[in-house]
Amino acid sequence: MLVLYSSNTTSFNTLGLGVLRDFKSEPLITEVLNGLYNLEFDYVKDGWLSEYLIEGNIIKAEGQLFRIRSIEKNISDTKISILAKHIWFDLEINNWLEDVAPTNLVGHTALSWMLARTKVANNFTVTGTCTKVASARYVRMNPIEAIYNADNALLERFGGELSIDNFNINLLAHRGSDTGVEIRQKKNLTGAIYKVDIKSIAT
User: Fold this and answer.
1) Whole-angstrom Cα distance, residue 64 to residue 141?
2) pTM for this one?
């Protein structure tokens, strides 16, 4: 069930604007470890609540909140394509770190310290199990850039693996555990599909 909310909603315990129902494709959530966390789907252009599928509005899917970032429409088609990013990535929208330098801290403490110093206040809380002590400095960049993409990105400098649950962020030394299970072709792998695309290769 996907529930739609207006962009300025702060409580998500109701059905908001309503429940989406007129999908042209199954909603797909993609989470990459220490990377993107997106929701994508195609929707009937004139379907139920389609007029509220606009940039900025929020969708709750599988208990997680995603903010609509882009809508693709084709006047000759009967669908609209929606891309929404996890609410965590709101930190890259109109927010800023002027000059912060977490010093001699473990990863989750450094992340919490940094988020407490963003130009625009946020509602994220951070816990974790990191043990590596490090230092870094981030000047005039948005928090997501500092965490993921800077030359001295927090996830590179301090280590750890993010576990994101709406506004609750857990920076763990490692997510999951090694159970010793192996998947092998011709033993317990019953099928696989892969796609090869060479259109970006050039010489």
Assistant:
1) 26
2) 0.86
